[in-house]
C-alpha cells in the first residue's frame, strides 16, 4: 500500500486493487478452511470419525465401554483420587462393561479401590495407552454391578454377598431389595403396575377392591401364577397374603407356616425345595407374593405414582403404610395394625 502512488483516477488506483486482492485471499483461505473442516470433522466418513471408529473397534474391554459412553456425549468420571500434602490418601476407579440390555451400551461393571494404610507418595493416574487404559497396579476389586435397562439388578461386594433388585412402574421404581440372593433366584409382585416381577401371570386382570399393600391384588381364579428356572437343589421361601384365611396350593411346598390376620388378609409362608419351577394356585385373592432363597432377606415397596412410597413390607413381612396430604407431602405413617407411628405438620413461617 505504501508503494502505491497517490490516487489519480480509478484506473491508476493501485490501493483499490490491493484491497480487492486481500479480500480475495481471505475468501480463498476461508473456502480452504471450510473444506478442511468438512473433510476432517463434519462430512460423512470424515477423518475424525474414521479415526475414532478405528480406535473404538480395536479397543479392549476396558477402553471400549468408555468410548461408547463418549458416543452418547456421556463423560462419566472414571477415576477419582484424594490427596493430602501431595500424598495420595485414596483412589477409586470405575470399570465400565458393555451391557446386554440394551445391547451395546455401557454401565459400571465394578468399582476398584486403592486401600492404603498410610499416605503414599506415588501414584500412576489412569490414562489411555494404545488400545487399553493403563492404571495404578494397586487397584483391587471392591464392588461388582449387574445392570439391565438402565437400572442395577445385582450388586456384589468384596465379601461375595449379593444384593438384588426388582424394578417396576415402567422400570422407574425399585419394588424389592433382596440381600444374599442373585437376581435369578428371586421374584416379587404386589400386582400394582405394568411389571410382573419375574412371575408368570396368565391374566392382566387386577382387583382394586381389596389389597394388603398398594391398591391392587390378584384373584387366582383368573389363572395360576408360576416361576421357572430355579435350582432344584436349592431351598426357597414363597410367602404371600391370602384373602381366604387359608393357604393356597404351592408346588414343591414341604412346610407351611401361618402368620397374622390383618383386615381380612392372612399371612402364609411356604418352604419349597426339590423343584425347578413353582406354581401358586387357588380361587381367591393374593397379594405381596414373594420368592427368595431361604438364606436371603427381602424388603418390598409399593408406590403412589407421582407422589411417593405407599407401603413398605420388611424382611419379617411387617407392613408400614405412608399417607400424604393434598399437596403430595408425607403427612403420617401407620403400622400394619393401624397405629399412627409418625405425624408430620407443615406450617408457614410465623404461623
Characterize the structure shown.
Helix content is 14%, strand content 42%. The protein has 351 residues and is mostly beta strands. It folds into 2 domains: 64-157, no CATH class; 178-343, Sandwich (Jelly Rolls). A 12-stranded antiparallel sheet has the order 1-2-3-6-7-8-9-19-20-21-22-23. Strands 10, 11, 13, 15, 16 and 18 form a 6-stranded antiparallel sheet that branches. Strands 12-17-14 form a 3-stranded antiparallel sheet, with no helix packed on it. A hairpin with a 5-residue loop joins strand 20 and strand 21 (319-324). The longest helix is centred in the N-terminal third of the chain and has 29 residues, at 14-42.
What is the topology?
Blueprint: H1 14-42, H2 47-58, H3 64-71, E1 79-84, E2 87-100, E3 103-114, E4 127-129, E5 132-134, E6 140-148, E7 151-157, E8 162-168, E9 173-179, E10 187-189, E11 218-219, E12 225-227, E13 235-242, E14 249-250, E15 253-262, E16 265-273, E17 278-281, E18 285-293, E19 297-304, E20 308-313, E21 319-324, E22 330-335, E23 340-343
Helix content: 10-25%
Instruction: Choose one word for the global shape.
Output: elongated
Rg is 32 Å
Low-confidence stretches: none
Order of helices and strands: HHHEEEEEEEEEEEEEEEEEEEEEEE
Please indicate the count of domains: 2
Which range does the strand content fall in? Answer: 35-45%
With helices defined by DSSP (H or I, 4 residues minimum), what is the helix count?
3
Mean pLDDT: 92
Secondary-structure-based class equals mainly beta
Structure summary, number of beta strands: 23
- The strand line-up of the biggest sheet is 1-2-3-6-7-8-9-19-20-21-22-23
